[in-house]
Amino acid sequence: MRTQVGIVGAGPAGLMLSHLLHLHGIESVVLECRSREYVEHRVRAGVLEQGSVDLLRRTGIGERLQREGMRHEGIELRFDGESHRVPMTELTGRAITVYGQQEVVKDLIAARLAAGGSVLFEAEAVRLAGLDSQSPVIHFRRDGRDEQLHCDFVAGCDGFHGVSRGAVPDGVLRTYERTYPFAWLGVLAAAPPAVDELVYANHERGFALYSLRSPEISRLYLQVPPDEDIAAWPDERIWAELRTRLETVAGWSLNEGPVLEKSITPMRSFVVEPMQWERLFLAGDAVHIVPPTGAKGMNLALADVALLGDAFAAWYGQHRTDLLDGYSAAALRRVWRAQHFSWWMTSMLHRLEKDDPYEAKLRAATLRYVVTSPAYATSLAENYVGLPEV
Ligand code: APR
Ligand code: PHB
């Protein structure tokens, strides 16, 4: 099999890249180790920055997003028995849209298949070869058989646990990372959200987040210890803990309902540099992870491939190498802005297992500053809705 750009991974990064390349008249094949059913139903985050919404709309993927996405112009910070709204749109002129990542994935898969694109499911890339030659090869397994995809370039969009990053020789990449001494327990519940906007709560028992997916479905998160067993969290315990951490303002209560899905996600900050080696270009979770507190993961993945799409277009269309050569440096500017913002939001809102009283006071001072200083609130808001230029 041969194509121009071989793409490993059908998450938001790989699928969007394939779509962008198609719009530029460049062929690609996407290899995805999971089934279509699996990737379309994997529950993940759901906040799109203004720039991500604009990208989806501009490239013809925004029709259902326009109908079903929920535009939010603010978020709420809850702490110390008080609730404060950060009016993001008033402060920045921009907004976020709540729309599940798996919905973006469904829309992109539908668009690629409708355009005759090749997305091969249950096709697992096992080895990348010839990356430092003019014709790299992706060795993959499908239906129990070994196959090869020959291409001009490889785009490694295969997430944190993928194979692409590991194909770079030792000593080339540098890793920057931080782990946090807590995880998030995420719950999807058939309960009408009791909020119009997302609520980020700092509580002495730990962080909680109230988000939503639709007028009928709530999405909630609780800070839990890093090695927590999901079996320790029967539904009644989850609701009791959510009530304790979120029902801190008089007269407000959350809505409960059947739990549809629950899982525990570790929190990690991680960046690998550079995001390219020879003919391998890495994007999304394959090269950077943020803790979910800033809601940046999917947005960074889309921003990476927006750059990469233009860079391949310049190479194929005008024989220009400058954008491909500059891809890593350009992408990393946004990546590091999001790294800082995600770390900052995380530090401000979570408690540590062995909490240092000084740190707790600093968190309280930071929260108080955000809700009293328009300058500081604007800093939060412009990062949250996404900076157009970084
Ligand atoms: N061969 C083929 N596919 C692979 C392989 C492999 N060896 N390894 C991993 N994959 C697939 C995974 O099954 C997954 O569908 O690569 C895809 C990577 O997609 P994502 O993990 O969604 O990563 P990305 O597209 O970068 O999107 C980042 O996803 O994890 C969230 O919070 C994160 O929102 C962010 C977004
Ligand atoms: C979500 O709705 O899943 C969500 C929202 C905001 C976050 C993280 C996750 O910061």
UniProtKB/TrEMBL annotation:
MF (Gene Ontology): 4-hydroxybenzoate 3-monooxygenase activity
UniProt keyword Cell membrane, yes or no: no
Keywords noted in UniProt: FAD, Flavoprotein, Oxidoreductase
Transmembrane segments: none
Domain FAD-binding: 2-341
Domain of life: Bacteria
EC top class, as a word: oxidoreductase
SUPFAM superfamilies on file: FAD-linked reductases, C-terminal domain (SSF54373), FAD/NAD(P)-binding domain (SSF51905)
E.C. numbers: 1.14.13.2
InterPro entries for the chain: FAD-bd, FAD/NAD-bd_sf, HB_mOase, RIFMO-like
Name under which the protein is recorded: 4-hydroxybenzoate 3-monooxygenase
Organism: Micromonospora azadirachtae
